[in-house]
């Protein structure tokens, strides 16, 4: 997974929908949906339960969310550390 994948995943969670995440990330909803489908194929799990308006994390999605938060936090710490040097 790339940093963008983590950002995209978190945006979907925060926005509670692919369409709203797409607006925030200035992408199309189809692009967001295809990225999530690729993540689900990579991990071989369903990350979100979907209906026509909302998404909800599955148990596996919650596990990935914890990793995504840690990875993004560590990336921010590393970037800050090097920008201060």
TrEMBL record:
Key word Transcription present: yes
| Family matches, as SUPFAM superfamilies | Winged helix' DNA-binding domain
**Domain HTH lysR-type per the UniProt entry, residue ranges:** 1-58
| Name of a matching Pfam family | HTH_1
**Keyword terms:** DNA-binding, Transcription, Transcription regulation
One GO molecular-function annotation for this sequence? DNA binding
InterPro entries found in the cross-reference section: LTTR, LysR_HTH_N, WH-like_DNA-bd_sf, WH_DNA-bd_sf
Q: Which family does it belong to?
A: Belongs to the LysR transcriptional regulatory family.
Specify the protein name: LysR family transcriptional regulator
The organism named in the record is: Paenirhodobacter ferrireducens
């Amino acid at each position: 997974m790339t940093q963008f994948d983590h950002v995209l995943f978190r945006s979907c969670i925060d926005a509670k929908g692919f369409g709203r995440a797409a607006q925030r990330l200035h992408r199309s909803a189809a692009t967001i949906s295809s990225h999530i489908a690729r993540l689900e194929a990579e991990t071989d799990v369903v990350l979100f339960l979907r209906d026509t308006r909302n998404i909800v994390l599955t148990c596996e999605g919650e596990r990935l969310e914890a990793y995504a938060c840690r990875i993004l936090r560590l990336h921010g710490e590393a970037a800050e550390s090097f920008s201060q040097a």
